[in-house]
Amino acid sequence: MGASDIDHQIMWNRLIAVVEEQATTLIRTAFSTSVREAGDLSAGLFDREGRMIAQAVTGTPGHVNAMAESVTHFAAQIGPQNTFDGDVFITNDPWLGTGHLHDITVVTPVFRKGAHIGYFACTAHVVDIGGRGFGPDGNEVFEEGLLIPITKFAERGQVQPLLIEMIRANVRTPDQTVGDMYSLATCNEAGDRRLQAMMDEFGIDDLQSLSDFVIETSRKATLEAISKVPSGTYHETMQVDGYDAPVHMEVTLSVDGDQLLADFAGTSGMSRFGVNCPEVYTRAYACYALKCAIAPEVPNNTGSLEPFRITAPEGCILAAKRPAPVSVRHVMGHLVPDVVLGALHKAMPDTVPAEGASALWNIQISARASDPESGLPNREVLMFNSGGTGARPGFDGLSATAFPSGVSTMSVEATEHVGPITVWRKDLREGSGGAGALRGGLGQTIEIEPREGYDFYFNAMFDRVDNPARGRNGGLAGGAGAVELADGTKLRSKGRQLVKNGQRLRLSLPGGGGYGAPEQRNRDAVAGDVAAGFITAEQAKQDYGFEG
Amino acid sequence: MSKIDIRVGVDIGGTFTDVALRHPGGLSTCKVLTNYSQPEQAILDGIVKAADQASIALGDIRQVIHGTTLVTNSLIERRGAKTAFITTEGFRDVIEMRSENRFEQYDLNLNLPKPLVPRQDRFTLNERMGPDGKVLLALDLSEVNAMVDTIKAGGFEAVAIGLMHAYANDAHEVAMGEALSKAMPNLSISLSSVISPQMRELPRFNTVIANAYVQPQVADYLGRLVARLRDTGVTAPVFMLHSGGGLISVETAAEQPVRLLESGPAGGAIFAADFARAHGLDKVLGFDMGGTTAKICLIEDGAPKTANTFEVARTYRFKKGSGMTVSTPVVEMVEIGAGGGSIASLDSMGRLQVGPRSAASEPGPACYGRGGTEPTVTDANLLLGRLDPNNFAGGAIPLQIAESEKAATKLNLSARDAAFGITELVDENMANAARVHTVENGRDIEHFTMIAFGGGAPLHACRQCEKLGIKALIIPPGAGVGSAIGFLKAPFSFEATRGLFQRLDDFDAGALNAALIEMEAEARAFVDEGAKGAETEIRLSAQMRYSGQGWEIPVVLPHKQFEDSDVSLILSAFEDAYCTLFGRIIDGLAVEITNWLLTVSTVLPDTEPVVGYKNGSDANVAQTREFFDAALRKSVAAREVERSSMTPGKAVEGPAIIVESETSTVVTSGYRAVGQGDGSLLLLAKEA
After folding, report:
1. How far apart are CA B190 and CA B158, in angstroms?
2. Contacts B92 to A, Cβ<8 Å
């Protein structure tokens, strides 16, 4: 390393600050709840060839790698001869963007001194994109909303009026949806301003040498990390609840020196419902899991992502074909890391966690007046909730914490101001952490009742009810999820259901799996768990052989 | 001169206790080592020392103003009282579940900070308020009595009570609190509806728990302090600087110690704000760099920007989300792990990283020769010729260049390349943090003036300005004890808050006015404890958002008797604020208010305008020495000037180094420095 490398490093740091600023601009201007609360967005800088140089660290791994791929599609379809200063490109094509129609990707070419030198890109989840609305019930992507093919949102600074009119006419929230598109374009502009200032400061006019440095340094570090994984072929299967039928996930991980391939051959076919994942989204989550375990320190860019090669046979639920419905692809996507890490565990024991709740238990509540004549307004409430994560080789799992997603929950007090519901309970679910030398994280219990004058519908899309998170190395499974009324009446874990005034919905979120045999758990830790009420005295005796 | 002018400010920091004594003859300052077991001893020693210097009798001191990091340290080090938490059934784990996310996406072995009160000490009551303050489930007296027995049996020293929606109706909290205090008159009891009556259970519960946890200790310490001061002959009343940058009585501080969490840093911000006013600057970026961290704050129209929530005790590389969010008024500061002691290392890719790990004061940087072997920012500054090895801390610590060289070459670079890399990276990290902070506030950083203080800032501030495009930089005198001086410049103030949720299309002026009257009375009572009869002003702001958004923005409003027709006034103030932050407004969406904040504050006396100089005659150059100019990427011959010779109207063109016993000011080739009427240095970009 020499002095010129120091400049490259400083610029690399700066680029990461630039894309963070780009992302911050988006978070602060977006309308979509999931962008704001859950960091459901992505922002990054790409070179002229569409290679990603830097990316903001945001809430959802699902966008990370998916967006990295999308810019090459833009570059190929629009072509250099049609790329002008002031252009802004757009798409929400699930197969070319980030997996469902609600995610809008906006790409802005960067020009310097008249030459096209790269792109800023960003992605965000919008409030509404028309069609049936956000949910799994469509049977084809056509029902799920408006698909905007790769096209120009603006050409040479002029926004395309026809496109805007088309979008406005096809969505329920025209101001917010179109507003978010402007936010996306604005955030790319913010990035562009900072990049230009940096290039002024360092006296450079193109990104090529910097891009080569970042990507090659990262690739080298990633390949070195992969080569530490013992060569071989590792296989793992996992069954999850799915929507209409259980889903069998299967992955074969082949490692040969510094080459790595994860292949999902053998995985179940597509669902009739919108839980299918386009392959790009599967790749995003599989890559995220592998990167966390193998090379977590290397920043995201083409050099650090490409060495993780991931493939799924077209037509399986993890590589859905057009025109499959894909609206809630996140549920299967969030479960992908568990099966991938299971395979990696066979190559690298004592590195990866046990399985966790993994798929978020998001709940969309539609409150409706019990008496339609009462004139009480309809209200919509969205809550993000997480179960427990799997125990780690060195630590217990995290209770009620999102993994692999990075979303945050909202305040119950704030939620109760949004809609006419009372949340009577949102606390840790005692005994739900899988027993083990290291205990799985606890799930949580949530009880919700419509307030006076209201009933509510909720859209269930909950996994790990029939297939709890498995433990590792002798650790036991985490508690399975449950969906019921507080009086014990069982409800379905999938689909739209009614909770009438006076009834109380109870969601029991799954716990994470345990790691290592429970008998080997430190006795003080067992005693501590009993004292805190994380486990009962009975469980201590039964699972841990602990008499107190 | 009347006796009223004699006031003393005391700041207890991690290493030093700083004292600043304002007296008719001027300002006496001193530093003594912080005494961890008896912090009040260092205060007494310092006050006696400063009074001696000024030839002042202790009995002539009229006010003692105190700020301290002890409250924060007690939280970080978990040295608080044995505390119980009483909450609503179903919400026992709010403080343990936090926001249900991970603050670091790629660390599989991430651990979340443990809650201050463990689960077995968190108890619940079957009761519930609705969001509008209506009782959904009444509190049962027999449960209250059973809870009293539980607390009694548990041997707790402090109890925090935080019930759902208690900001909207405090009846159940009050009933529980009264029952406890009746049964145990000496028990420390904190209610969330008193400590932080705002919507959002996680920050409110955190805040009331933090308060209870530190309360017995802080009350005890402040009691000892007042008694020892009196015994020594200092009979003056003691006031505390709260995190929001105002003064409160020592009694209030003892009851609501959570308001003191950021009191030391707030003093620094007030110090900078005072210079901003004196220099007539309405847009200022305060930059404070010490041994371990750097802090950045915005100062507009002479007042530091304040916020209503902040994160304390971050556990993971100063990372956002890794601490505990509390909601209490605070001077808004961004803190990053960048200081003189920050350690440089190579990451897995062979890339240079600086901080947040720090060599602190023990063993200190390698050049201290006290056993430190890792290269730090101070070592890099020494290698680049920015520090004089024989004149560091007034010659108290002779610096050993050979040790710095040895440490720096561990980075697989020549010593000079390593040193350049280290300083440039730490400057880059700080500049990025400053840029992000201004962007987040919807401001354009190029239009700001920087005011830099703290031991490390004068070395790094000019390069920061180059990177940020800032054209003017002020280095005030006395920057080494800036917080203690700042304490002397603070108004008496108290911010009252209320959660009062209203949609504008449903605006109820009557309910608002009733709340404002209560809030003003509450805040005024606290201010009167120190400044009865003084001229006061009232600042009012509302936290507002578009319906459907998750976070509010602060909207400043006139303090008045509101009428239902004032909706348009409130809406337009919201739209102005929204537009400043986000560049546009959104038509057709409903707007709502969540919380109200009302501050009563004494009016600050006008500052004496500083005689400013933009140019001047050449200052006396002591010698020429080489230093490395980062922007030019080369060594340059710099003029070395004593700070004492930079009298008003004396100037030196960069590259230059202005030396004083505590630090050195680097003037890069692109700037020139001019001495100002108040002893400040003004650094101006040559091209500006």
Report:
1. 8
2. 427-428
pLDDT per residue as tens digits for the range B219-270: 999 999 999 999 999 999 999 999 999 999 999 999 999 999 999 889 999 9
A395: containing domain: 353-548
Q: How confident is the model at residue B1 (pLDDT cuts 50, 70, 90)?
A: very low
Report all structural domains of chain B as residue ranges with CATH numbers, in order of start.
Answer: 3-75+219-260 (3.30.420.40), 81-217 (3.40.50), 493-602 (3.30.1490), 617-680 (no CATH)
Kindly state whether residues A59 and A206 are assigned to the same domain: yes
Contacts of B128 in chain A (CB under 8 A): 422, 424
Q: Residue A324: inside a domain, yes or no?
A: no
Task: Map residue B524 onto helix, strand or coil.
Answer: helix
Decide if pLDDT at A245 tops 90: yes
Q: Per-residue pLDDT tens for B559-572? A: 999 999 999 999 99
Taking residues A56-83, report their average pLDDT. 87
Looking from the CA of A374 toward its CB, the CA atoms found within 13 Å total 12
How large a percentage of chain B has pLDDT more than 70?
A: 99
Residue A517 binned pLDDT confidence (cut-offs 50, 70, 90): very high
| Residues of A whose CB is below 8 A from B348 | 221, 225, 295, 297-298
A36 in reach of chain B (CB within 8 A): yes
What's residue B2's pLDDT?
A: 42
Q: Give pLDDT tens digits for B264-305.
A: 889 999 999 999 999 999 999 999 998 888 999 999 999 999
Kindly tell me the sign of the dihedral angle through the C-alpha atoms of B2, B4, B5, B6: positive
Distance from CA of B112 to the nearest CA of A (A): 8
User: To the nearest whole angstrom, how far is the Cα of A324 from the nearest Cα of chain B?
Assistant: 30
| pLDDT value at A508 more than 60 | yes
Nearest chain A residue to B435 by CA distance is: A21
Q: What is the pLDDT of residue A2?
A: 58
- The secondary structure of B338-361 as a DSSP string is -STTEEEEE-TTS-EEEEEEE-TT
Residues of B in contact with A385 (CB under 8 A): 100
Q: What do you get for the CA distance between the two ends of chain B, in Å?
A: 43
Task: Give B205→chain A minimum CA distance, Å.
Answer: 12
**Domain finish residue from A219, A237, A252:** A219
Cα–Cα distance measured from residue B563 to residue B574, given in angstroms and rounded to the nearest whole number: 17
| Domain edge (last residue) among A202, A219, A236 | A219
B11 near B472, Cβ under 8 Å?
A: no
- CA–CA dist B75, B244 (Å, integer): 19
**In this predicted structure, what is the pLDDT of residue B575?**
95
Residue B581, min C-alpha distance to chain A (Å): 8
* Residue B589: band (very low, low, confident or very high) from pLDDT cuts 50, 70, 90: confident
Q: Do A422 and B112 touch (CB under 8 A)?
A: no
State percent of chain B over pLDDT 90: 73
Say if CB B137 and CB B127 are below 8 A apart. Answer: yes
Say yes or no for a CB contact (<8 Å) between A444 and B93: yes
Does the distance separating the beta carbons of B352 and A426 come in below 8 Å? no
Interface contact A10-B425, CB threshold 8 A: yes
Percent of chain A with pLDDT over 70: 98
Q: How many CB atoms lie within 10 A of CB B624?
A: 13
A524 in a structural domain: yes
The secondary element (H helix, E strand) that includes residue B324 is strand B324-331
Count structural domains, chain A.
Answer: 2
Note whether residue A237 is domain-resident. Answer: no
Q: State which H helix or E strand residue B241 sits in.
A: strand B238-241
Pairwise CB contact (< 8 Å): B439 & A21: yes
Contact map slice: A 215-274 vs B, CB within 8 A: 217-218, 220-221, 225
The predicted complex's ipTM stands at 0.94
Domain-located, residue A327 = no
